[in-house]
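User: Hi! I'm working on a homework problem where we have to compare a predicted structure to a textbook description. Could you give me the structure for the chain below?
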Amino acid sequence: MTNTTTSKNGVTIRLPEERWKHIIQRHEGLNNQKELVLKTIADPERILEGNERAMMAVRRFNQAKVLVVVYKEIDNFDGFVITAFPTRRLNSLNKRRQIWP
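Assistant: Happy to help. Predicted structure tokens:
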């Protein structure tokens, strides 16, 4: 089962089951947060430039952390989630170039 959402660029972003399993194996705190992962792509607080043409959607997760969802837009119609993780390390994120807004 693949879940999808739409990025700020209007691109359909897929969250394949294999990627979701990878995410929750590494970050158990996201186990019941699939909708938040997808919402972070559709409605982020900001989008940062990732590595190798990836994008990093960022949204507040709780009082102390933000959720970062790394995804790639392959073309104008299709893309996929690479990974997602909660972090407190805002300084490392702030070193990246902001793409949106």
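For your comparison, note the following. Residues 4 and 33 are 14 Å apart (CA to CA). The beta strands are 3-6, 12-15, 46-49, 55-60, 66-73, 78-87, 98-100. Good luck with the assignment!
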